[in-house]
Amino acid sequence: FGDKDALYLAVLEDAYHHIRHAEHRLDLTHKAPSAGLKELALFTWHYFLDHPEFLSILATENLNQARYLRQSTTITEMHSNFISELENVLKRGAESGEFRAGLDPVDVYLTIASLGFFYLSNRYTLSTIFQRDLAAPAELDRWGQHIVDTVLASIRP
After folding, report:
1. CA 62 to CA 73: how far, in whole Å?
2. 119: helix, coil or strand?
């Protein structure tokens, strides 16, 4: 790898490669728009739950103001393919009348990711403040469904 910075960048690229590879297996372009979006939302939630190291490296990279991410030549390409696929789902949903027209796929993805990331990155402090075990399996399942409901409600006509 050459040095610690190059090793860190390789780990960061690998983390993004894994989530994008797993998302690609969803095959969103061949599913009904609402079903595809629901599957993407639940996939993202469960990926975050199953891969806390991914959230950790994202938090670290954000503390570094994306210093290493900007050096990557592969991560942007991974995201553009994913966003194109999501854009296709949203377009098909608009054509069928399920979704509003003109939705920004980045906004929709940010909504999905932020609902999961915020919950998980703050679940222990919020559990204490609200005196509810947000790490309990039933609470995690409930929140996953809330993500789906919120995202779908936000894009319907």
Report:
1. 18
2. helix
